[in-house]
Each structure stands twice: as C-alpha cells, then as structure tokens.
C-alpha cells in the first residue's frame, strides 16, 4: 500500500487508477450478524451473492470431472437455448419489419 501512496506523488493519474483497482479487490460483501441471528445473516449473504452475480461466477469456476453423458446433456441444453434465442430473434425481426412497413405505407 505504501508503494501505491508513494507512486501517487510521482504519477498521480496512473497511481490513482492502480490504487482504485487495489481497493476494488479488497471490496467484498459484508454482512452484519445482529442479535446472534446467524440464519438471517446467511440468508442476506445468499441474496447479496445472487444479486451481484458472484454465485454464478463461483459455480462457473468449479472444475470437476464431467461424465460424457453430462457433457451431452449440457451440449443439448446449450443447443436448445441457442435455437430458442435465434427463433425469438427471427420473430422479433419479422415483427419489427412489419411495423416499419406499416409506418412507411401509412
């Protein structure tokens, strides 16, 4: 930290950017336990992690062996998701084109 403070006087703009990244790394989710109610604090922590997307990041970082059947299931789900998204995009495009044509004609 002292290194960042000394760098602040030499190169203020560069030092502030690096210092903000260091402070950003220190920041996290903090939960206060009130009246020894640990269950409530854990529920609050879980909600905070879900809303910040941290829970999703942790799940994605977990590396464990996937069986071939699990890989196939995941691949099929990804394919279905992608096809559904493309289908919705195609429908939305058709709707927007109809609206544009209708506005041009009217």
From TrEMBL:
Q: Which GO terms describe its molecular function?
A: structural constituent of ribosome
Q: Name one GO cellular component term.
A: ribosome
Would I find Ribonucleoprotein among this entry's keywords? yes
Question: According to its UniProt record, which protein family does this protein belong to?
Answer: Belongs to the bacterial ribosomal protein bS21 family.
Query: Which Pfam families does the UniProt record give?
Result: Ribosomal_S21
What InterPro entries does this protein's entry cite?
Answer: Ribosomal_bS21
* Keyword set, alphabetical order: Ribonucleoprotein, Ribosomal protein
* An annotated GO BP: translation
The name this protein carries in UniProt is Ribosomal protein S21
Q: Look up and give the organism this protein is from.
A: Escallonia rubra
